[in-house]
Design a protein that fits this description.
Elements: H1 2-17, H2 24-51, H3 57-91, H4 94-114
Length: about 120
């Protein structure tokens, strides 16, 4: 869902809505909000469709959206974002990052066979 739906939408909307107007933390918050505002309603709709009856869809959808949207904002901005930035800036050097990608590429067929893909 992230790759095929919300990712392209965010890539299309971010330059138009955020652009170069914001800097620093405000820009990070705006991008996180845009990601969550696009991905969370779609995910909540899928969850509501899978785990509810057609009569209860609206109430389950609103409940799921009210629960997942604030938590997704919090986790994305305060936990996942800093962790990824910490790993990327402190642990992945350009040469070693390229070496890791080449190693993963050479091992991909074996890993996919092990996982049954």
């Amino acid at each position: 869902m992230r790759i095929y739906v919300s990712g392209p939408l965010v890539s299309f909307l971010a330059p138009r809505l955020i652009g170069d107007r914001l800097r620093g933390v405000a820009r990070g918050v705006a991008k996180t909000m845009l990601n969550v505002c696009i991905a969370s309603p779609i995910s909540s709709g899928i969850i509501a469709a899978l785990f509810s009856s057609p009569d209860d869809f609206a109430s389950v959808y609103v409940t799921a959206l009210a629960t997942t949207m604030p938590m997704a904002m919090f986790v994305s901005f305060f936990i996942v974002g800093p962790a990824v930035k910490l790993v990327f800036h402190n642990r992945i050097k350009p040469a070693s990052g390229l070496h890791a990608l080449q190693t993963m590429q050479s091992c991909a067929p074996t890993i996919s066979r092990i996982l049954g893909m």
